[in-house]
UniProtKB/TrEMBL annotation:
Catalyzed chemical reaction(s): a fatty acyl-[ACP] + malonyl-[ACP] + H(+) = a 3-oxoacyl-[ACP] + holo-[ACP] + CO2; (9Z)-hexadecenoyl-[ACP] + malonyl-[ACP] + H(+) = 3-oxo-(11Z)-octadecenoyl-[ACP] + holo-[ACP] + CO2
NCBIfam families with a match to the protein in the record: fabF, PRK07314.1
Native species: Flaviaesturariibacter amylovorans
Name of the protein described by the UniProt record: 3-oxoacyl-[acyl-carrier-protein] synthase 2
Pathway(s) where this gene product acts: Lipid metabolism; fatty acid biosynthesis
Similarity section: Belongs to the thiolase-like superfamily. Beta-ketoacyl-ACP synthases family.
One Pfam family here: ketoacyl-synt
Enzyme class name: transferase
Amino acid sequence: MKRVVITGMGAVTPLGNSVPAYWDRLLAGRSGAGPITRFDASRFKTRFAAEVKDFDPAPLFEKGELRKYDRFTQFAVAAADEALRQSGLDAGSIDRTRAGVILGAGDGGLATFEEQFAAYVTGDGTPRFNPFFIPKRIVNIASGVLSIRYGFQGPSFTTASACAAGNTAIIEAFNQVRWGKADVMLAGGAEASVTPSSIGGFNASKALSTANEDPAAASRPFDRQRDGFVLGEGAGILVLESLEHATARGARILGEVVGGGLASDAYHLTGTHPEGAGAALGMRLALEEGGIAPGEVDYINAHATSTPQGDRSELSAILSVFGATPAVAISATKSMTGHLLGAAGAIEAIACVEALRTGWVPPTINTNEIEEGFAGLNIVTGAAVQKEMRYALSNTFGFGGHIACVLFRKYA
């Protein structure tokens, strides 16, 4: 098995449209939530979200090309361009048959679908659909667009495991490199689901917070008063390479992927197992693959969406794997970014790598009173803290019981 390192990262998030902007605002405890601007949300129970701000895709594309791509694909391209720039990879100088793209997404071109169907329902005569309607909306198109953009002819596909999709993609790309099937992989996720049907659907399932009076304080992971998650959007991309490929070209190495745990709750359509059975299994599998004991993990970036059942389930799983120890710092960055669904794991992977690289644990904001029964856990609230760290674990869980946990190591 080959060692797999990270040489580049790119991000488009509700906190900023680059990794430095995103990371600085995470450490500062800034919230990206606010009133929805992309459509009139006045009739909905939830009227706020964590939207991407000041995003201009025009410089990324040739004239006329932009109309081919839904917003989620635009996010993916922006994040991938940043990641490749940081990596120093020249797409034309590597073996492109051994370079690929695996991304995660849950909804794909949902906004495109809604816009086109609205035009169909209100139109007269022969239905007129955009000729790019199908490629704009299908969930796999962002990975295809990146493969075409950079000429990467290796493995290219999209993982669709709901909110676990970003981590699932990272694990699959990690496997391609460590098994020797690829030298370079782009991995991560993209999502642009701040749309009427998404807000309406999550409202109907009672998953979203309805704290419209103060959106910035609405996402309250682990807090006894939490009432649901805040919908977010954006993309995160990591460049994964074999260690030998990266060192041969003199690349700067940001971190290392050492394990992945894929599992299932096998319990409920949308709810998590009360005792976190699947989550505990996923974490144990990631640690086992990384060859470390629970006591060696220094930081957990929790899935922690701020739903009543989900947060309690995850804390139960963490307690069962790690015990009530202050040695493991836990934080929930969704308190600031909102929940990016299929892209959540991607931007949270970036947070893990930056935490290991800089020695700073980002905080959980808005959490004032920890869920009863879990006071012994070291949940970082209020402000970022400094900590010596070698291993970080990222948890993601999706509707249908999907579990994907990724273990990162500080590169030294």
